[in-house]
Amino acid sequence: MTSNTTHTEIALGVDIGGTNTAFGLCDKNGGISHEASFPTTDFETAEELVEAIYNHLKERDLVESILGIGIGAPNANYYSGNIEFAPNLSWKGVTPIAQLFERKFDLPTLLTNDANAAAIGEMVYGNARDLSHFVTITLGTGLGSGIIIDGNLVYGHDGFAGEYGHIQVVPDGRSCGCGRNGCLETYASATGVVRSITELSSSQKESSKLMERDDIQAHEVFDFAKAGDPFAKEIIDFTASTLGKALANFSCFSSPQAYVLFGGIAQSGLEFASLVKNHMEEHMLSIYKNKIDVRISSLHDKNAAVLGAASLVWNERKKYQ
Question: CATH classification of 10-119+301-318, choosing from 3.30.420.40, 3.40.190.10, 1.10.760.10, 3.90.180.10?
Fold first, then answer.
């Protein structure tokens, strides 16, 4: 995608996900002059991924234009620059990802949680530009959350605040990649939707077209639901109910103006957001009722996580201007 901007200052935004790693060259106004992606699982080590991104940009004479790098990744620690024990990545243990990029590119590099990066992107460029208190919920392979209070990201004392996908919502529930059971992301995520096909008890199950294949993806469940498949509709409502209840509980913590849904499931449209909103209001503490919006990201056609990661560079530069 070509940007219309005439600005020459460029930051490299990198979004490392459990399935794909997307990256792009971004300007201050949200224009992306070049973007690409690689399957994350193609790389046995983080070093190989960094090398591939560098070579891709070098071959196109794009490295020299970059003034800094921002990275969003699961279990990313803003303070240390490390990815630490990410359950949805094949790289186990602690990965010094910011240091690897810094060494290869010889550029200052900042790291944050992938959901935090999406929240920054939404606040600066997207559907939360009018908000100073909101939570971005990323619904991808897993579930992440980026918490904005008074216009600032909440990191906590150790850099790991906002792991809402791993709050346990069902006692002794579904097994999670984090090693525990019943985490929210095992129900409200693309992976969770697919798991519901086999794990959800329903009288509608046997007659559903979902049972005719063993390779159904989450977006197809939404397609079947829109076509009227009763079991698919039941799965979508179950997913929205689980998420809505969780958001009602989470409201007691930060009292946000809105939740902004981002990711593949959110792209299914306003109908899912409305379902989530209805279930959230049903379980909401009375003092919060009808005060909190459920919005859908306006940056799906760009890449909120890439833009958010790149905006780390702009925020850092502001401190010294």
Answer: 3.30.420.40
